[in-house]
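Predict structure. Chain length: 217.
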Amino acid sequence: MRVAVSLASADPLRIAEAAERAATAGASALHVDFGDGRFVPWLGGGVELVAALVRLAAIPVDVHLMVEEPEPYFAPLAAAGATSVVAHIERAPYPWRLRALAHRSGMQFGLALNPATPISDLEPVISCADYLVLLTTEPDGAGELMLPNTLERVQAARALIGPDRALEIDGGVTGESLTWPMRAAVDRLVVGRAVLDSAEPAILIAHLASGNGVGVR
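Prediction complete.
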């Protein structure tokens, strides 16, 4: 199981420390959220931050674009050294174009769905993405608890996309919320506070990574 550690909840004055701690603890990647204040109600991320993390850490840096217009970010992120970029299906009317831009620059391309977006919306674009991302909390929602219909959505997504494409969940992932039925359906996790606030982050990451998944990692 691939475990990326999100830096969205890190102390802004100690992001470098949080990134190094995550990498040392065995994280598969660092995860950076971009917010534009429009698609989500907050501002965050930055190409300069991605470039700094790439220089700092010897692990991949994934970028999740929670923005109204994702395309302009692709070239700067590639130049900064991002490993993968995720755009939202709700704001990607031409996902094949985005895929081509990402691949041309050497980045993987993912498509994300907000919790209120029907899983069936994936059907026309399944083969477009290298991996698919289900948000399992609302962006900047109250609290960080995984939404109660998460398992149902994860299983529906897996049934739709089949075994040969990776499925990632992002939001409220902890050692307790990641049930064994959920582990059986997903391949990639994004984890934030659970790791950053843990007294034993290496043990927690190893526990989370112990699921087998079913798709391509």
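Summary: Confidence is low (pLDDT under 50) at residues 212-217.
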